[in-house]
TrEMBL record:
It comes from the Archaea. The keyword Phosphoprotein does not apply. It catalyses: L-arabinose(out) + ATP + H2O = L-arabinose(in) + ADP + phosphate + H(+); D-xylose(out) + ATP + H2O = D-xylose(in) + ADP + phosphate + H(+). The keyword Glycoprotein does not apply. This is ABC-type D-xylose/L-arabinose transporter. Part of the ABC transporter complex XacGHIJK involved in the uptake of xylose and arabinose. Responsible for energy coupling to the transport system. It comes from Natrinema soli.
Length: 368
């Protein structure tokens, strides 16, 4: 069992509200990723769960037991940090074993046996007699995981555990961590500011901004149905395009383009005046403008390519519009790698109404 419940948790440091009224129910065995920009309160939330910070308001429960006043050692959880927090003077064996020594009820032989078992699971048997200084970053991270796993806790709390690894190793360790978590079947709360890590690892993702929980959901739910403009912009790479404007007779009147609403969009927008429309770069269709005098359809616009970034499998195309206030890019599109449009080229861009998001321009809430 390892259900973790945050019930209206708030944490203040003097006048700073680091975490504000967060309610979150993390299920047993779930892999929950807490994600958000720097300073949004991720680490503070994790540290409250661990018992390393007190709570200012609200209640914390693990498996139904009230935790607010329980010391970290008695919460039956293990934490893994970004900087690994290994003891440099101890060998790997001693570091991993250290995780057990605080636990009552193990004989020395049992501890040794358990260390060997965990080392085998993590593929670090050959490193057991080395010191942390003699290990690569990835190996140190495995040892830090070993120290957490060895105790067989109810939950793992991980604070940016892969942040110090290079990109290739990070992606490899992401997959390993997911497999490990699935094998161990232990509730895991994983903090990152990296939305790719969140999307690929989490059973569910909780997005924080300015201490407040913005949305909790499965990765694709957040991607397709963001609750507000913040989540829409945070999840997805390249980020969603946003165009600001007002409700008009036909639908939406932006700074430089009109976007007619069909019945569905008109219905969800209702009488909200201040609007932002959003569309993901991969939902922006770009085609060569074969005939510049040809009339355009309802959701088509003539634009000019400013830059094309080629990534091999795909291209990111930056676009500007003749009526845009200044000459800056107004949209980004992702196109197939084989479909290259050059800087300076005139193109026809289609913004599919089925894939348009509309936000309340004042509060940022998603209208659809
Ligand atoms: P990062 O991704 O940069 O680590 P974070 O999302 O983990 O950021 P927190 O470390 O939880 O954010 O910090 C949230 C807010 O609380 C920040 O404004 C931070 O400056 C503040 N804060 C955190 N710890 C303390 C502290 N011990 N004393 C005062 N303010 C703090």
């Amino acid at each position: 069992m390892g259900r973790i419940q945050l019930d209206h948790l708030t944490k203040r440091f003097g006048d700073t509200v680091a975490v504000e009224d967060v309610t979150l129910d993390i299920e047993d065995s779930e892999f929950l990723v807490l994600v958000g920009p720097s300073g949004c309160g991720k680490s503070t939330t994790l540290r409250m769960i661990a018992g390393l910070e007190t709570t200012s308001e609200g209640n914390l429960y693990i498996d139904g037991d009230h935790m607010n006043y329980r010391v970290p050692q008695n919460r039956d959880i293990a934490m893994v940090f970004q900087d690994y927090a290994l003891y440099p003077h101890m060998t790997v064996r001693e570091n991993v074993r250290f995780g057990l020594e605080e636990e009552a009820g193990y004989t020395a032989d049992e501890m040794d046996e358990r260390v060997e078992e965990v080392a085998a699971d993590l593929g670090i048997e050959a490193l057991l007699d080395r010191k942390p200084g003699e290990l690569s970053g990835g190996q140190q991270q495995r040892v830090a995981l070993g120290r957490a796993i060895v105790r067989d806790p109810e939950a793992f709390l991980m604070d940016e555990p892969l942040a110090n690894l290079d990109a290739k190793l990070r992606s490899q360790m992401r997959a390993e961590l997911q497999n490990l978590q699935a094998d161990l079947d232990v509730t895991t709360v994983y903090v990152t500011h990296n939305q790719t890590e969140a999307m690929t690892m989490g059973d569910r993702i909780a997005v924080l901004n300015d201490g407040s929980l913005q949305q909790v959901g499965e990765p694709l739910e957040l991607y397709h149905e963001p609750a507000n403009q913040f989540v829409a912009g945070f999840i997805g790479e390249p980020m969603m395009n946003f165009l600001r404007g007002r409700r008009s007779k036909a639908g939406f009147a932006g700074d430089f383009l009109e976007y007619p609403f069909d019945d569905r969009l008109a219905d969800v927008v209702g009488d909200v005046d201040d609007l932002v429309i959003g569309i993901r770069p991969e939902a922006v269709d770009v085609r060569r403008d074969e005939d510049e005098s040809a009339p355009l359809g309802d959701h088509e616009y003539r634009m000019t390519v400013t830059v094309t970034e080629t990534h091999g499998d795909q291209n990111v195309v930056h676009l500007t519009h003749a009526d845009a206030a200044s000459d800056h890019d107004v949209l980004q599109a992702v196109t197939d790698g084989m479909h290259v449009v050059e800087a300076g080229e005139s193109v026809v861009v289609t913004l599919d109404p089925e894939r348009i998001h509309v936000f309340d321009g004042t509060g940022g809430d998603a209208l659809c």
